[in-house]
Backbone:
């Protein structure tokens, strides 16, 4: 088909498609994480601002699963839909991405989280102005902070926060790596939905101590905006607990990936040669084109 006879979307694609693989993947991580926060934080806003009259805790956690699944769907065959620095860290240690890709992806993810938070803030600005917090709000902190980022209760220690983040993220990444392992024969088309289910499961199991700190982009991006709007107390609160959960989450992601590899991944039977050829599509998960 001649270029002039192509439909407008295809002509635009040929003209504006980003040729650099790294930049293209970074854009996918930025947009995907922004969508994740735009949807997930919107669910959380409804949950908090309505004081659980509209979105219950159960509904919010199920919603977070879908908030992960659909952005992963739309970015899956570009960057792999990582959308989480802890998952990217795990993939880096497994040799799936290199250091340059890891750094660029994490920057894109945090930037996407920030932009997504800005969108939610302006959409709910009128509601925020009239919000009166109840006893669930963090003592001594601005009343709106709970709407954007989770905080541990005063009686929860930073040690508990660390292990909460480590175990929760380890579980998340353990199951994601298992799903990605082509020898487990999980159809590629349902990977994003399963990732969302894993997020919901983890959030329901470990959402009480520190608000499910399993994705640093979901914390750092919103926290930067809250700090700009309401002050630096969001960083210093609870003896800088957010740094504790950040390192716990990153370590948890790496630990979960390698725990799967050593306990189960090394022992999954190899695919027959014919079936292995049929699963070549799964290699598109993390494009490594030159």
Residues:
């Amino acid at each position: 088909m001649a270029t002039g006879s192509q439909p407008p979307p295809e002509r635009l694609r040929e003209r504006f498609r980003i040729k650099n693989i790294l930049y293209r993947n970074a854009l996918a991580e930025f947009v995907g994480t922004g969508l994740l926060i735009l949807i997930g934080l919107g669910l959380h806003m409804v949950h908090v601002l309505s004081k659980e009259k509209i979105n219950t805790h159960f509904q919010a956690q199920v919603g977070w699963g879908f908030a992960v699944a659909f952005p992963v769907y739309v970015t899956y065959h570009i960057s792999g839909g990582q959308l989480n620095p802890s998952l990217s860290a795990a993939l880096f240690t497994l040799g799936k991405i290199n250091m340059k890709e890891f750094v660029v992806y994490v920057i894109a993810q945090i930037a996407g989280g920030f932009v997504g938070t800005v969108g939610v803030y302006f959409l709910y600005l009128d509601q925020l102005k009239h919000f009166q917090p109840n006893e669930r709000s963090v003592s001594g902190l601005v009343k709106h902070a709970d709407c954007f980022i989770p905080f541990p209760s005063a009686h929860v220690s930073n040690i508990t926060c660390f292990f909460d983040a480590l175990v929760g993220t380890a579980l998340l990444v353990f199951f994601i790596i298992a799903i990605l392992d082509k020898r487990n024969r999980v159809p590629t088309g349902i990977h994003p939905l399963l990732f969302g289910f894993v997020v919901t499961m983890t959030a329901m199991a470990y959402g009480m101590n520190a608000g499910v700190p399993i994705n640093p982009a979901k914390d750092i991006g919103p926290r930067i905006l809250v700090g700009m709007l309401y002050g630096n107390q969001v960083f210093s609160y609870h003896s800088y607990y957010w740094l504790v959960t950040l390192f716990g989450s990153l370590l948890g992601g790496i630990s979960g990936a390698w725990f799967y590899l050593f306990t189960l991944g090394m022992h999954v039977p190899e695919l027959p040669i014919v079936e292995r050829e049929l699963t070549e599509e799964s290699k598109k998960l993390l494009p490594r084109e030159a």
Remarks:
- The two ends are 28 Å apart (CA to CA).
- The first helix runs from residue 8 to 16.
- The domain at 20-272 is CATH 1.20.1080.10 (Glycerol uptake facilitator protein).
